[in-house]
Design a protein that fits this description.
about 170 residues, alpha+beta, about 20% helix
């Protein structure tokens, strides 16, 4: 392949969406992660990857919506992401998992129960702990929004915020 040829296919993952692909040319990208969380999972042997951009921690906040929009909630969307990857042949033991987002962008939040970013992150950690899933890298918390790009060819994940790009 000629190095000057760019065969990458940019796939946008919108808020409350989950995208899974077995195309190694795919680059999954999500924009403006504030209190939302993006979970990126990648099978390092098969180059199958997926990303979810969820906005709320638990489906019990809005009963009935999880059936229509499982990716809106951490407790329904994260299992949906992993099941979708396993359906394409990914194996848990080969997964590399990265996480970004969970910021608190509201300066007036004094009550941690109102800090959606923190609650989104807590539900993720609880689920991963119960299912023995290790996070390889993360860029979470703080008071800034993030854009995440996740390349399936090699699992390279970049997080951009306020003009600074970090590789996870």
């Amino acid at each position: 392949m000629n190095p000057s040829q760019n065969t990458e296919v940019l796939v946008t993952v919108g808020i409350n969406e989950c995208v899974v692909s077995d195309n190694p040319d795919s680059v999954l990208v999500t924009y403006a992660l504030g209190s939302c969380i993006a979970v990126m999972a990648w099978d390092r042997l098969l180059h199958i990857g997926g990303m979810i951009h969820y906005s709320l921690p638990q489906a019990s906040i809005h009963p009935g919506q999880a059936e229509v929009m499982p990716a809106k909630f951490g407790d329904t969307g994260i299992p949906f992401l992993f099941r979708s990857m396993y359906d394409l042949g990914a194996q848990k033991r080969h997964l590399v998992v990265k996480v970004a987002g969970g910021a608190c962008l509201n300066e007036s939040v004094f009550d941690t129960n109102m800090d959606i970013g923190r609650r989104n992150y807590v539900i993720l950690r609880k689920m991963f702990w119960k299912n023995n899933i290790m996070i390889t890298a993360e860029d979470t918390g703080g008071r800034r929004s993030r854009t995440v790009k996740f390349r399936l060819r090699d699992g390279r994940t970049t997080v951009s915020s306020k003009g600074i790009e970090t590789v996870l």
